[in-house]
Amino acid sequence: MSVAGLVTVVVPAFNAEQFLGDALRALAAQDYPQVEIVVVDDGSSDQTNELATRTPGVHLVTQENAGPSAARNTGMAVGNGEFFTFCDADDRFRADKVSKQVRYLREHPEVGCVLVHHQTFFESDVTRPEWLTDEDGVQPQSAMVRREVVDQIGGFDPTYRFTEGFEWLGRMRDAGIGIGVLADVCVDRRIHHTNMSYERADLQHNMLRSLRDRLERNRRTTA
Length: 223
What we know:
CATH topology: Spore Coat Polysaccharide Biosynthesis Protein SpsA, Chain A
InterPro entries: Glyco_trans_2-like (IPR001173), Glycosyltransf_2 (IPR050834), Nucleotide-diphossugar_trans (IPR029044)
Protein name: Glycosyltransferase 2-like domain-containing protein
Organism: Intrasporangium chromatireducens Q5-1
CATH class: Alpha Beta
Number of strands: 9
Shape: globular
Largest sheet: 9 strands, mixed
CATH architecture: Alpha-Beta Complex
Oligomer: single chain
Helix content: 25-40%
Number of helices: 7
């Protein structure tokens, strides 16, 4: 049973002690009054669990390591929100991120999901690869969705290592769910050594897989 107006922010966290505090402080500073913070500790071996436990207003859930998609799904399963949104443990929401997305969904009842732009920033000890820009862009994981959308199409596919957000959006589109995009930059996306462990080829491979899966779904639907 959901609580009207409540936004559940799911924070998947794996060995996130270095940056989780920044993420949680930014969530506590949201200008929207009805925010539920759910941190899902995805089998961490560092102080992630302890940090979340001693942070006021945080609902902590622990699970064996299963990846960020499974962690987001776990958070949605225990969340009480009318809306769901997601914050990676190394990113930061700007203060008006949640309120802007809620306002958009209230003003556009035909839309089930709204995306915002992010601004990438690099830790001082990270060398930016040529293919990764610091321009603002859209990150599917920072979407806000209505609970009924999740009830209809399910959560993230945990078999995707990368691009799970794009696969999820593809399922929304195939189900006829409206998707909106705000031009506002509302998330600061941190790039550091840990989340630089993937290569461009990995991303391309998973994007192609997402497209193949979507084509196969459409083929079955029209057959």
